[in-house]
Amino acid sequence: MKFVVEPGELVDAVNWVARSLSTRPIKPELLGIMIDVDSSITLTGSDLETSTKAILKAEIVNKGKVLVPGRLLAEIARSLPNKPVSFNLDGTRVLVTAGAAKFTLPTLSVSEYPNLPDLPETAGVIASDVFATAVNQVAIAAGKDDSLPTLTGVHIEINKNTITLAATDRYRLAVRELSWQAKDANLESTTLVRARTLSDAGRSLTTHTQVTLALSPNASNERLIGFVSELKTMTSRTLDGTFPPFKHLLPTESVAQATIEVAPFLDSVRRVALVTDKTVPLRLIFGNGKLQLEAGAGEEAQAAEELEIQYNGEEISIAFNPTYLTDGLQAIGTPFVQIDFTGASKPAVLTGKHEAAGLKDESYKYLLMPMRYSA
Questions:
Q1: Which of 35, 268, 316, 363 has the smallest CB count inside 10 Å?
Q2: 313 burial via Cβ count (<10 Å: 0-12, 13-18, 19+)
Q3: Would the pLDDT of 375 be above 60?
Q4: Which candidate, 119, 210, 117, 192, places its Cα nearest to that of 155?
Q5: Which CATH number fits domain 2-106: 3.10.150.10, 3.40.630.30, 3.40.50.1010, 3.40.50.1110?
Q6: Distance of CA 189 to the CA centre of its chain
Q7: Do domains 2-106 and 251-368 have the same CATH topology?
Q8: Residues 177, 3: Cα–Cα separation, whole Å
Q9: What does the alpha-carbon distance between residue 132 and residue 201 come to, in Å, rounded to a whole number?
Q10: Element of type H or E holding 22
Q11: pLDDT of residue 374
């Protein structure tokens, strides 16, 4: 096996494949990246839950297949000088050369590498920038507690040419609705995907204009989801379990509404939150065209700030986790945010607005549970 590749191409491909390698594999071969040189060069990595593949554009001298330590290859690839990189299999070692830099890599057993699942059938395509934005907006609300695996996932509901993404950690809920081009105009399906897997796909599959979504049939015993973008693919097993019902949590009416410019609001939240930590609430008092932000009490450090806002409805005094509020404001993606309230002790819903006097963008909703605080 021998081939020559440009360093930029190598780094991009190896970084993509290495993200699916396990840190504590059940067998040593899962520490490796498979390099399969045939009519093209395919790099593969897997932790048996998620598999990633990348096609390398390279000058092929000899065909062959080899399994090398993946994280070491990634570190080497990132450190090489900006010169063509040569790979040459010599017995049980792989020689990697770029300019004056030379490395010798050990190999792992190709025969012991597991058979990985094939990419499921194409379900449709979506614009890569829309996909990446939607994933970022929703994945922030997914849980981090692996003892509650269902809440670490993003619920994907497909209804013909509409996809709804939802995630919650019980303290907040993010929901994004977007359009896509389904291969089957009558497709209806639901699945639950690890938030970190979806985030990896969203971040890395944006070099092409479209992302192809692949799904196992509803009747299939093996539930898989796949993402394809030009020279990169990801295949992942979906999560078991049922995502909790969430649509009824989003109120259809409100007793008060605030419209606030996002940038100064974010700055104020960050400043006032300096005297808190993530377990201490940030108090917000809405009324009479003003928003008062307060944090801290008693002998502790305290902070306060006031903003002019557009406000309709009864005065509301409410408290939020400052980190969760900041996450939501950053995810909105519009110059203005509208906050709808149903009461001081009930969840509030954040939606975006492109203009202060314009309509709110209902495609993304971020529901935030209030925190208790001592007056």
A1: 363
A2: middle
A3: no
A4: 192
A5: 3.10.150.10
A6: 20
A7: yes
A8: 45
A9: 8
A10: none
A11: 65
The CA distance from 6 to 94, in Å, is: 17
To the nearest 5 percent, what fractions of the chain are helix, strand and coil? 20, 45, 35
What percentage of the chain reaches a pLDDT higher than 90?
87
Backbone phi, psi, residue 50, to 5°:
-130, 135
Helix or strand run (H / E) with residue 56: strand 50-56
For residues 18 and 53, is the Cβ–Cβ distance under 8 A?
Answer: no
pLDDT in tens, 306-365: 999 999 999 999 999 999 999 999 999 999 999 999 999 999 999 999 999 999 999 999
DSSP class of residue 170 equals: S
Tens of pLDDT, residue by residue over 54-91, are 999 899 999 999 999 999 999 999 999 999 999 999 99
Q: Residue 220 above 90 pLDDT?
A: no
For residue 170, the one-letter residue type is R
The CATH classification number of 251-368 equals 3.10.150.10
Average pLDDT (220-227) is 89
Q: Which residues contact 8 (CB under 8 A, 6 or more apart)?
A: none
Domain ranges within the chain, ordered by starting residue: 2-106, 121-247, 251-368
Separation of CA 104 from chain center: 35
Q: Do residues 334 and 328 make contact, with C-beta atoms less than 8 angstroms apart?
A: no
Amino acid at 64: G
Q: Where are the alpha helices (DSSP H) in 19-140?
A: 70-79, 128-139
